[in-house]
Amino acid sequence: MPRHPDFVPHGVIPAVLLPFHEDLSIDEQSFRAHLRDVADVQGLSAITINAHSTEVASCTRDEQRRVMEITGEEVGGELPVIHGIWADGSLEAARIAREAQAGGASALLVFPPAPFTLGQSAAMALAHFKTIADASDLPLIVFQYPLATGQGYPAATLERLFDEVPTIRAIKDWTPLVPQHESQIRALQARKRPINVLSTNSAWLLSSLVLGCNGLLSGSGSVIADLQAKLYRAVKANDLAEACRLNDRIYPLARAFYADPFVDMHNRMKEALVLLGKLPRAVVRPPLVKITEPEIARIRDALIEAELLGTGTQRGVGWVSAA
């Protein structure tokens, strides 16, 4: 896969889904079609794989490598590919980073290690990122979790990371508190070496983008990349009326996708693609389980309200509007 050597994480970056067969093996044919469908959207900056949206926690080392290979074959020549680094140990994270770079990735999205839920220090975070940076010179994206999870990095830790790990170029900001989110956007993007803030607050995306994010990285882009790209352009153009119009279409889907339990968000997105006729089935791997028919009906209603599905459309043979 050709690498995009000048890529700096910014703009609209969907995180794609990973379809499975009924036997829980990867449905490569459907994954290829899904990749092409998303990549055909105008206005994207990159695509993300091996992340929450591809159920990376359930994927083996070989499966992650295969996901990378398929992505490179289908869209690697068109868009930069961001590869997730999901690992509890820094040595394993470094191995993934080396393989991702060798496979043609253009940037790495670094998830926080799960042990940080038990407590962390700035020295631990630095050790983790420096180990990865020593293994790869690709741009790094810090995935900033909410501080309440224990895996989020305090402001002082972030400052040290940005000062001491020069390949960090962006942050995927899951900060749920608006004042903290805004202060990070203002501070990080104004640094001498700017750190782009990519919103992942897809449940309130318009509000987040209006604060000045230089991009968004979102699993819901697997379904509504076109709406997200248009919303981002409208915000950047200071066209509030158009942004509000687009947000009115996104809002019902945000409510449906990000309902409780939050962990089912990508499960729901798979169901949405089935309803739109873009996936043959919505299979997830345990411990996730298929959502109920009443919830699927709510997703269908949200797709209709978002003007993506006709009111007379039967499940699995939907149409997507050109709007």
The helix-and-strand class reads alpha/beta
Instruction: Write the CATH architecture name.
Output: Alpha-Beta Barrel
Strand content: 5-15%
- Would you report the number of β strands? 8
The number of distinct structural domains comes to 1
Number of helices: 11
Shape: globular
Helix content: 40-55%
**Uncertain residue segments:** 313-323
The CATH topology is what? TIM Barrel
Distance between the termini: 33 Å
Description:
With 323 residues, the chain is α/β, with parallel strands linked by helices. 43% of the residues lie in helices and 11% in strands. It has a single domain (11-250), classed as Alpha-Beta Barrel (TIM Barrel). The chain is built from 11 helices and 8 strands. An 8-stranded parallel beta sheet has the order 1-8-7-6-5-4-3-2. Helix 3 links the parallel strand 3 and strand 4. It is globular, with a radius of gyration of 19 Å. It starts with 10 loop residues before the first strand and ends in an 18-residue tail after the last helix.
Summarize this, please?
This protein has helices spanning 28-39, 61-75, 90-102, 122-135, 155-164, 178-189, 205-210, 221-236, 240-257, 265-275, 293-305, and strands at residues 11-14, 47-49, 81-85, 107-110, 140-144, 168-173, 196-199, 215-218.
Key phrases:
alpha/beta, eight-stranded parallel sheet, globular, disordered C terminus, TIM Barrel
